[in-house]
Structures are given as structure tokens and as C-alpha cells.
Amino acid sequence: MSRTRISAALRLTASVVLTLFGLLLATFLIARVVPIDPVLAVVGDRASAETYQRVRGELGLDQPLYVQFWRYLVLVAHGDFGRSVLTRNLVIDDIVRFLPATIELATTATLIGVALGIPLGVVAAARQGRSADHVIRVVGLVGYSVPVFWLGLMALLLFYAELGWAAGPGRLDIFYEDSVAPVTGLILVDSALAGDWAVWRSALHHLVLPAGVLGYFSLAYISRMTRGFMLEQLGQEYIVTARAKGLRERRVLWRHAFRNILVPLVTVVALSYASLLEGSVLTETVFAWPGIGSYITGSLLNIDMNAVLGGTLVVGTIFIALNLFADLLYRRLDPRTR
Amino acid sequence: MSGAAGTGQGWRAWLVSDAPHSARQARLGEIYRFGRALARHPLALTGLAIILLLVLVAALAPLLAPYAPSTQHLLDRLQAPSARHWLGTDELGRDLLSRLVYGARLTLGIVALVTVISAPLGLAIGCMAGYAGGWPDAALMRLTDVFLALPRLILALAFVAALGPGIENAVLAIALVAWPPYARIARAETLALRRSDFIAAAQLAGASPARIVLRHIMPLCLASVIVRVSLDMAGVILIAAGLGFLGLGAQPPAPEWGAMIAAGRKYMLDQWWVAAMPGIAIAVVSLGFNLLGDGLRDVLDPKQR
């Protein structure tokens, strides 16, 4: 390993640590500005002054802020986000239970986005300035403009209530609930492992709408970026050479130009996955999808701050990790960055 | 100026002249070229038209709205679109069209306030970091990177949850997560300007760093920041609508579009228009901002074409 690579790795590590630190500081400070007295929340408003002071000491609230922050870091490092007021469970247990549903949703949506977005982007670039390009551009821009929760509601109205093509809110039909033992927490995987295809079909039926709605946003982003990357390649001289050799346009596009955009495209897909995790917050609320987004919004409305901040921390960490992953992959795949 | 001045041809020649005689001529010429480029971009013009329409509707709301936005007519609740109520009525018999028209004021207000808070904040941080260099630069940019690396919507949600629901807090939360891209851009521009002769001249003339940043650097960074702001506006509208939808933004009876969708959700199966109409309004307006932003980027950055 060369010296420059080591220093690059160190710089990357430092920036990730710093970002995580920033996230923790943000959640810590948010918890401090909440206009709820955390001591009163524990002892109730009829406790005596001594009890109040004792609990205040136990919670460490009489300590200076940096000591409190240190204690918070230690707790979080042990996976202790406190207890949810709403569910009465440890927040970490709740998150472990709710997270797989979100991952199942975001992954399926990303797959949809990749499968449709990349070909659309390539076609748009190949037909730049022509009507196909404009149509694809507008489809993408609409994806950037429509509120995801509204699109979800309209999709439910049309495909579930009117046409009956897809199943309604939730992850499964009610009589299949808890019928497969959770292994991965991803129902499609678990039911396939158990060989229970009735459950698998029901899960897929429920997944189609939310994943389709979310996938549309991924499609908008991926097709737009693909188009940009492809245009950059199509302007290069090796493309002119390939065409001059008499290669068919399809081959020029997919074998020559497309291969060269794979590296930046991988980054884009990772970033899109990260933004879908965030987008799933609103989508899950609409589809009653029992994921981390529903958990966070449900807790928000009940000012269940332990749950909100625990959820924020977990989603934020995954977000940072995906960004890091995209970065590392880019360095690994692109020989110029070595 | 030649004798041709006053005719259309002469004005154009004056505007696009390669050798402008004054700063004003150069600036007007630039605006003219920019306008011409934008005019050749039909999608951008569509976007501009939508935004102008929004501003007009917001300004003339009392004249345009057929009914008062919050007056309840319980006998007319959940009416389908008709000649009397073009877009129908909501669950309290309020005219949806009137509420949408007044809601334009809220949307525009939120966008304007977020911009007024976040753009100067980002501009100031970026210019200071870029001009100062050294450790202030490193510290401010790390802070920016941290904010950029965090999920914006979720952070805004957590902020609003902590500050308490309401339109002011929603604006504050969105502004708090919106400034980092502006700081990045302003810093990049400042770095390019820092070593130029006119800055050296100002320094020699004894101008203080604060004066140089405020009077000489910031105005030149403004253009790129404005473009970025216009690109972000659709995102701001969508986050604000999302907060409204979750009940964390504007509170009833304010005709905020996101909150109106949330209210219409209960009646969606039989009275779809209550939830559908505000969503269309949000989509059209943010599409307008996206089209304009997209066009601006095309016009200003030839690489993207």
C-alpha cells in the first residue's frame, strides 16, 4: 500500500467518524431542546422536591453538558437508546423489529428504479433532443415534483380501491400475519425459505404498490444521472471511432459507452438507496407499512423522543454507511482513483 | 453609440457588444443574452410561467377565491366538483378552490422564508471559509460536510418534533438543513476569486477582511447560489408539504396543501377530490420550480447540455 493510499484511507476514516459524531451531537442537542422536562417525565408532577433532585442526579442532568454528552455516547455505543414511552419496549428492540420491513421496501424499490431507470437514461441520451428524450425528461422531472405521500394515496385509490389489482395497506393479508417464523425479517425471503408460497404471494401483492411508488422516485433519479453520464461518454472520440468502424449503434451504446459509466452509476444507485430509506418515512405512513419510517412518524406525533432520536440515529447511520460504501466502491472500481 | 440607436437592431448590437463601454452595458448585455438563451428553452419558460402564476394567485388571492378559505358550510360538506364549487368542498364544507388559492400564499411564504434564512447563512459561511482559509476553512467545511451527510427530511422531522409543530418551526427546521449546499458553492467561488487582482487592490487600499467579503466577494458568489436555490425550491416545497401532511407544519385551519391532503385522506374512497386537488397543486408548483431550475442549469452550464 502506498503512502498516499494510507493517507487517503485515514482522511476517509476521519471524515466518517466526524460525520457520525455530528449526527450524535445533533440528536443529543435535539433531545436537550425538547420542551419536556425529562425528570418530570419520570417522576410525575406530584413528586416531592427531594425525589425530583434525586432522579435529576440519577439521570445525570446536574452534570455539565459535555459530561452528559459523553454519557450519551457511552449509552449509544452499548445500543441503549432508552425506552419508548409509546410501545414500552427498549427502542433498540423496536428498531430491530421494524427495520427489516423498511429494508425490504427500499431494496425492492431500488431494484425497480435500476431496472427501468438505466435503460430509460440510455435511450434518452441516445436520442438526445428528440421527443423520446423530452418525454423521459418530463417523466423524471415529475418524479422530482410529486409528493411521495400523495402519489401513494392516489395509487392506493386507483390500483387497490378501484381496480383491485394490488393489495391494500400493510405487509400481509391479516390471516397470514405471524404465520412464517422470522429469520431475516424480510417476508419475501422468509416465506420462500419456509416454502410457504401463499404467504409469499400475499407479501408480494402488498409490496407492489409501495415499492412501485418509491421505485418511481428512484427511477427519476437514476435515469437522469444515467443520461448525463452517457452524454459525456457519447461525446468522446472512441465513440466516433467505434461508429466509424461501422459498429451497430446498439453495440456502440451498450458495449462501449455503457461499460464506461458503470462505475459512477454504482455510486448513484447506492445514493438512491440511501435517499429511498428517507423517502420510505412518508411512504410507510401512507401504506401502514410497519417499518422504521412508520415507527419514527408514529413516535413523533406522540413526542416519544427516545424512539424518534433512536430511529433518526439508526437511519442516519445507515445513510452515512451507504455514502461511505458508494465512495469506497468508486475508489475500488475506478483505476484512476488508485 | 451610433445613429442606429433606438432601432431594434441598434439596441441588440449595443447589448451584445464585445467591448462594453460601461459596467451597466456589460451587465444589461449579460442579462439580455441570458434571457435569449432561456427563451429558447420551452421547458424553462413553462416553469417560469407556472411560478409567475403562483405569485399572481398568491398576490390576488382575495380577488380570485370565490369563497373565504375558512368559512364552514356544513350543509355543503364533501360536495363533488360542480359549477358552484369548481373543485368541490372539504369535510367542513369549505370551498377547495378558495383554500388552494389562499394556500399558495403559505407555500410561497415558506419557500421565501427558507430562502431568506438559508441562502445568506450558506453564503456567509462559504465566503468566510473560502476567504479566511486555514483552520477556519477546515472547521466550517467539516461542519458543512457533516450536515450534507445527514438525511435532510429525517433531521427536519426530528427538529420540528423537538421545537413543537407549527409553520414557524417547520420553516426553521427546513432552513437548518438547507444551507450546506450554498456554503459549498460560495466557498468554491470564493477560492477562485481570492487571488484576483481586484481583491489584491482592495487589500492594498486598506479594506478590512469583513469589507472585502461583504462588498467584493459575496456579490459575485450570489449568481451561482441563486441558481442552486432555485434548484432546491421544489425540494423545500415537498419537505414542507410532508411536514404538513404529518401534522407537524401549518396547523388547522390554515389552508396548507400538505395538511389538506392529510385531512382528505379519511374521505379518499368516496370523495377523492378532497385529497387529490391539493396534491395536484403541490406537484404543479414544484414541477414549475424544477423545470425552471433545470433550464437555468442548461443555460448557465454548457457542459450539462
Give a verbal description of the structure:
The complex is a heterodimer of chains A (338) and B (305). Chain A is an all-alpha fold and 338 residues long. Chain A is built from 13 helices and no strands. The radius of gyration of chain A is 24 Å and the shape is globular. The N and C termini of chain A lie close together (10 Å). Chain B has two domains: 1-40; 46-304, Orthogonal Bundle (MetI-like fold).
What is the number of E strands of chain A?
0
Poorly predicted runs of chain B are: 1-6
Largest sheet of chain A: none
Helix content of chain B: over 70%
Number of strands of chain B: 0
SS class of chain B: mainly alpha
Distance N to C terminus of chain B:
36 Å
Largest sheet of chain B: none
Describe the global form of chain A.
globular
Mind telling me the C-alpha Rg of chain B?
23 Å
What's the structural blueprint in terms of helices and strands?
The complex is a heterodimer of chains A (338) and B (305).
Chain A: H1 3-33, H2 38-43, H3 49-58, H4 65-77, H5 91-126, H6 131-145, H7 148-162, H8 187-194, H9 197-234, H10 237-244, H11 249-287, H12 292-301, H13 305-333
Helix pairs in contact in A: 1-13, 5-6, 5-9, 5-11, 6-9, 7-9, 7-11, 8-9, 9-11, 10-11, 11-12, 11-13, 12-13
Chain B: H1 8-16, H2 23-39, H3 42-59, H4 61-64, H5 96-132, H6 134-149, H7 152-163, H8 167-178, H9 180-194, H10 197-204, H11 209-245, H12 257-264, H13 273-300
